[in-house]
């Protein structure tokens, strides 16, 4: 039984904790409020993970530290640098592998499928923040100061996420219109949260995975319209009614809403094909993607379970890491 330290208790952190606990590992989840999965093998600790000394103490003896944190969307430029630095410092001091959950922002607009070799050409703030984090981690790895890896997914399917499907599917399942600033017919890669956790755990444990980034194995891309249609069929709901919100609507919303304002930077991800190639992780790490209909069925079930507490609504697309 080895110690694994997870920073963050969102959907990916929670799925990772449960996966490790089910495998008989000892898990320590670190959040500001001491929240996390309720499991006998999971220790929940309240701490500021941006404090390198405190985090290093919590990671002492750990085989891996998992960066599953997700600062507020409009605070990335302020909150990520000290947190990323503390995580890298803790990994360097303790010898634990630093396994980070990343995303596709760093590539910027791309024509064609993104691979791990796609140049990090993002011009926006959020993409540059993620690129800087990975560049610093990779430099430490190459200098022999830490062992690092990163896994990157597209928009998430799964319980508790705040990605595009979680804004698209609730109104669809309720038989209401879904109004979103997206091209509903552009092919898009969707990544299942459990597949993110599986890839993260494998990458942290496999020496061949260290020193590079990996795309989370994901099923073949489908449009948001097809995703909604499949979900409606699985749930026995009416055919989806999808209405595209023009970009000026998103721009105007950003005048009063910080989150909507941040979405302007990544609007390109939703108005054209957004495709991620994840064959490397399948071929080299042996991780297979969960079939889309299975991931979608589990997502629909989770949304139905949560519906009495949260209701269903629509709005602009939101993103994880």
Automatic annotation (TrEMBL):
Q: Which residues form a coiled coil?
A: none
Q: Which InterPro entries would you find in this protein's record?
A: Epimerase_deHydtase, NAD(P)-bd_dom_sf
> The NAD-dependent epimerase/dehydratase domain covers which part of the protein?
6-207
Looking up Pfam families in the UniProt record yields: Epimerase (PF01370)
Give the protein's recorded name. NAD-dependent epimerase/dehydratase family protein
Q: Which organism is it from?
A: Micromonospora carbonacea
């Amino acid at each position: 039984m080895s110690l694994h330290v997870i920073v963050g208790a969102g959907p990916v952190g929670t799925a990772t904790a449960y996966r490790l606990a089910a495998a008989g590992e000892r898990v320590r989840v670190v959040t500001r409020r001491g929240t996390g999965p309720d499991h006998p093998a999971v220790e929940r600790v309240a701490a500021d993970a941006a404090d390198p000394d405190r985090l290093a103490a919590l990671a002492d003896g750990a085989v891996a530290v998992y960066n599953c944190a997700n600062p507020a969307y409009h605070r990335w430029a302020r909150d990520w640098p000290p947190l990323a630095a503390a995580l890298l410092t803790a990994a360097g001091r303790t010898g634990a592998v630093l396994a980070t959950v990343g995303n596709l922002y760093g590539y910027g607009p791309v024509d064609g499928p993104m691979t791990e070799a796609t140049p990090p050409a993002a011009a926006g703030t959020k993409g540059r923040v993620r690129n800087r984090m990975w560049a610093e981690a990779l430099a430490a790895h190459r200098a022999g100061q830490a062992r690092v890896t990163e896994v990157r997914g597209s928009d998430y399917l799964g319980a508790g996420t705040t990605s595009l499907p979680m804004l698209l599917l609730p109104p669809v399942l309720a038989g209401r219109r879904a109004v979103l600033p997206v091209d509903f017919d552009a092919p898009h890669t969707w990544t299942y949260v459990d597949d993110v956790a599986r890839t993260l755990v494998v990458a942290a444990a496999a020496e061949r995975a260290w020193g590079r980034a990996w795309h989370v194995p994901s099923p073949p891309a489908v449009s948001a319209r097809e995703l909604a249609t499949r979900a409606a069929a699985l749930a026995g709901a009416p055919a989806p009614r999808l209405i595209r919100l023009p970009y000026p609507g998103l721009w105007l919303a950003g005048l009063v809403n910080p989150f909507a304002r941040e979405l302007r930077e990544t609007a390109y991800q939703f108005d054209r094909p957004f495709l991620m190639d994840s064959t490397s992780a399948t071929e080299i790490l042996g991780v297979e993607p969960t079939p889309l209909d299975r991931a979608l069925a589990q997502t629909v079930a989770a949304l139905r379970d949560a519906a009495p507490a949260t209701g269903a609504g629509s709005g602009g697309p939101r993103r994880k890491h």
